[in-house]
Amino acid sequence: MKRYPVLSISILVLSVFSFISCSPNKSSPEAVTQKDSGIVAKTLNINWGYYKSITPCADCEGIETVINLKKDNSFEEWSKYLGKKDTVFYRSGNIAIADNTTIQLIEGADTTLFHISTSAITMLDKTGDKVTGALADKYIFKQISSNGITNKYWVLKELNRQPVTAPNKSQAAYFILNEADTTVKGYGGCNILFGKYELNEAASRIRFLNTAATQRACIDAHYETDFFNVLNTADNYNLVGDTLFLNKARMAPLARFEAAYLQ
């Protein structure tokens, strides 16, 4: 698998200098103070949350990537090679501060630099500079909202209070609500479900309408029928962070899902 440009960062030994201590910024972006190798304390304003872009790819249509910058100075990253298999690659690591406008995303020996700006982060090249030219905008990751339930993959984790484990990542059951045309698409591990939906976010109400599914015969899609039945039965939901519960009336949750941000 081709990787993003990975930067090897040599830690420069710096002399200790005095810095002004200030109160944390309560508004977004937040002020973060972090020590680099125990030598110098640096402060950087970061808008925590999810960022997305489709970066250039030599042998595919593009690399769709979502990065989650977390308040505990860690990150998560999901990427998918468009035009190839729908495999989603995952990595995680720590965030370090390179300078007043740059962060490092560190996973083991691999380090990638990003320039921080308002509501966006920009992937830098191997020398720490911004990419120029016609494709420069492709390296800008724009912040996306983590609120609401539309335009996200909701991956099935629990069905009728029983954990669900897919045979492999490519067979993980999910559904996604397309906000633009109010259509729903789902995958049960074998067959594809499609239809329409009605959503009242203020009341946490949802209805799936006129759903239908392909009719492939698969021997290992054990929970597919029950999953599709949940979509046809649910009439309300609860959203807790990146976890979604589909419910019927006031009964126990029919299913639990976790959000993924690749579309």
Number of domains: 2
Corresponding CATH architecture of the largest domain: Beta Barrel
Q: In angstroms, what separates the terminal alpha carbons? A: 20 Å
Low-confidence parts:
1-28, 35-42
Q: Gyration radius, to the nearest Å?
A: 21 Å
Strand content: over 45%
Q: Major beta sheet, specifics?
A: 9 strands, antiparallel
What's the overall average pLDDT, rounded? 82
CATH class of the largest domain: Mainly Beta
Query: Quick one: overall form?
Result: elongated
State the total count of DSSP E strands: 19
Number of helix segments?
A: 1
Structural category is: mainly beta
Strand-and-helix sequence, N→C? Answer: EEEEEEEEEEEEEEEEHEEE
Helix content: under 10%
CATH topology of the largest domain: Lipocalin
Core attributes:
263 residues; nine-stranded antiparallel beta sheet; Lipocalin; mainly beta; 2 domains; disordered N terminus; 48% strand
Task: Report on this structure.
This protein is mostly beta strands and 263 residues long. It has two domains: 30-144, Lipocalin, CATH 2.40.128.640; 153-260, Lipocalin (Beta Barrel). It is built from one helix and 19 strands. The protein has one helix at residues 224-233, and strands at 30-36, 40-46, 49-55, 62-69, 74-82, 88-99, 102-107, 110-117, 120-123, 140-144, 153-159, 162-163, 174-178, 183-187, 192-200, 205-213, 236-240, 243-247, 255-260. Strands 11, 12, 13, 14, 15, 16, 17, 18 and 19 form a nine-stranded antiparallel beta sheet that branches. The chain has an eight-stranded antiparallel barrel with strand order 3-4-5-6-7-8-9-10. Strands 1-2 form a two-stranded antiparallel ribbon.
